[in-house]
Amino acid sequence: MMNQENQQQPLPLHGMFTAVPPRYDLINHIITLGMDTGWRKLAARTCTETKPQRILDIGCGTGDLSINIAKLAAKETEIIGLDYSQPMLDIARQKAEKAGLGGRISFTFGDASQLPFPDEYFDCAGISFAFRNLTYNNRLCPQHLAEVKRVLKPGGRYVIVESSQPGNRLIRTFFHLYLRGFVSPAGMWLSGNKGAYKYLAESAVHYYMPRQVKGLLMGAGFHDIRYRPLFFGASGLHIAYK
């Protein structure tokens, strides 16, 4: 278990996000064996399948989910990517421009616990591999979830793709060994940021089971919550409705 200081101050992780290494995307692809690309595409398809008019990408990082959404959404769809790391947003804008989608996405600096948008503004909110950071041992978890619910229209959807816990105990054991034995040292070596990737591995090892994520979302007032396991449950897609 993490001590109280780590619960309230995940400083190594914040440091990585505000001083993003040039190989951030490469590291993500390596530690997920390249599967994160497909998982984000699945999340983008899920975000756009109901033809929403406004979509928010929370914790957008270097913009992959936002870009995938822009490729699928109608041209009139408003797409906003929000992150608290300016270096991440700078990379996201560059990637969007390179993909010819610079005019389709607005990248905004902001805090997920104080979203700078009006009530009931978005039809859909998506988040890819940032939900764990906002909810696991995070004292602001209730505020993060309340803010998402606030900015969604009635009937709006919250689409989450995140690491998960395999239901099979043997697979779960191997998954945890992989996180500690490969993901953590590989991330440290490639990025030079020991604290961040130790946090990443340990938070994924201890992260909630799907039923616990469902409980969090229900406790925040979401309903009709659905879950789809990915890669034997190592990751998962959650959909919740306001």
Would you give an account of this structure?
- The longest helix has 23 residues, at 169-191.
- The chain has one domain: Rossmann fold (3-Layer(aba) Sandwich), CATH 3.40.50.
- 49% of the residues lie in helices and 21% in strands.
- It starts with a helix and ends with a strand.
- The chain has a 7-stranded mixed beta sheet with strand order 3-2-1-4-5-7-6, sandwiched between helices.
- Residues 1-12 have low confidence and may be disordered.
- The chain contains 11 helices and 7 strands.
- Helix 2 (11-18) crosses helix 10 (194-205), helix 4 crosses helix 5 and helix 9 (169-191) packs antiparallel against helix 10 (194-205).
- By secondary structure, the chain is an alpha/beta fold.
Q: Give the C-level CATH assignment.
A: Alpha Beta
Question: Uncertain spans, ≥5 residues at pLDDT below 50?
Answer: 1-12
Mean pLDDT: 88
Main beta sheet, described? 7 strands, mixed
User: What's the architecture, going by CATH?
Assistant: 3-Layer(aba) Sandwich
- Named CATH topology: Rossmann fold
Number of strands: 7
Strand order of the largest sheet: 3-2-1-4-5-7-6
Radius of gyration: 17 Å
What distance lies between the first and last C-alpha atoms, to the nearest angstrom? 32 Å
Q: How many separate domains make up the residues? A: 1
Give the count of helical stretches. 11
